[in-house]
Amino acid sequence: MEGRDPNQKVAATRTEIGTDVNYGEITRQLVGSLQKKENFTLSLNSEVRGFKRNADNTWSVTVADLKHNDEEHVIKAKFVFIGAGGAALKLLQETGIPEAENYAGFPVGGQFLVSENPDVVNRHLAKVYGQASVGAPPMSVPHIDTRILDGKRVVLFGPFATFSTKFLKNGSLWDLLSSTTTSNVGPMVDVGLDNFDLVKYLISQVMLSDDDRFEALKRVLPGREASGLASVAGGSARADHQA
Predict the structure, then answer these.
(1) Reduced 3-state DSSP string for the chain
(2) pLDDT, tens digit, for every residue of 203-241?
(3) Is residue 63 within 8 Å of 73, Cβ to Cβ?
(4) Domain extents for the chain?
(5) Half-sphere exposure of residue 123, counting CA atoms within 13 Å on the CB side?
(6) How high does pLDDT run on average in the chain?
């Protein structure tokens, strides 16, 4: 509220029971629990290279060990569940099942301004959500959050939409093109036409300059804290691309 016009009408709903969800910690606890059970194996630094449907409807999955010169081995399974984030689409296509033909992916990401400045961080201990602009999608709601990153308290503001042809941070620039087929290009076009407002919003976001992001920040944080956040984030905004 500091720095805001005292005549401006403002409404807010507050709850004191909210918390962050640390998905990394949840994953570690889940894996730790599964490792105590029989017939569970966790294979890290591994890459699925291929699928083969066997005559008995089981699967043979070729997996490469990236820590040992890409040495490949085959795992036989009755069922295969693909939950690989940005890699899921290409793996699904690799199976050859007809259900995969009409699926497509469009790699849109989110970018946040970040501040580690104690003058800013120590004055903000909340998750504050605003309202999306008229015509903007729900996921674009601007918010300024206190987060703990790698054990250090920081303040984030965003999101700002980003675009990349990669499906993963360390993926290939050819991911989008290589996953586009004659079967899924039609559905992709249909989705774009049906959600044209979203397409326009994403294009406008990609075209934003650092000054534009700073102006968006000042609408939420009009006081002196805004300059503290932007001065750190302007040249070092962090991005998290998601498929």
Answers:
(1) CCCCCCCCCCCCCCCCCCCCCCHHHHHHHHHHHHCCCCCCCCCCCEEEEEEEECCCCCEEEEEEECCCCCEEEEEEECCCCCCCHHHHHHHHHHHCCHHHCCCCCCCEEEEEEEECCHHHHCCCCCEEECCCCCCCCHHHCCEEEEEEECCEEEEEEEEEEEECCCCCCCCCCCHHHHHCCCCCHHHHHHHHHHCHHHHHHHHHHHCCCHHHHHHHHHHHCCCCHHHHHHHHHCCCCEEECCC
(2) 998 899 888 888 888 888 776 555 655 444 333 333 333
(3) yes
(4) 21-81, 103-242
(5) 14
(6) 85
pTM: 0.76
Q: How does pLDDT run across 85-130, given as a tens digit for each residue? A: 899 999 999 999 999 999 999 888 888 888 888 888 888 888 888 8
Q: Any idea which of 11-15, 43-47, 54-58 has the lowest mean pLDDT?
A: 11-15
Give the total residue count for the chain: 243
Beta-bridge partners for 61: 51, 75
Q: Give how far Cα 85 sits from Cα of 21, 47, 109, 233, 235, Å.
A: 18, 14, 13, 27, 28
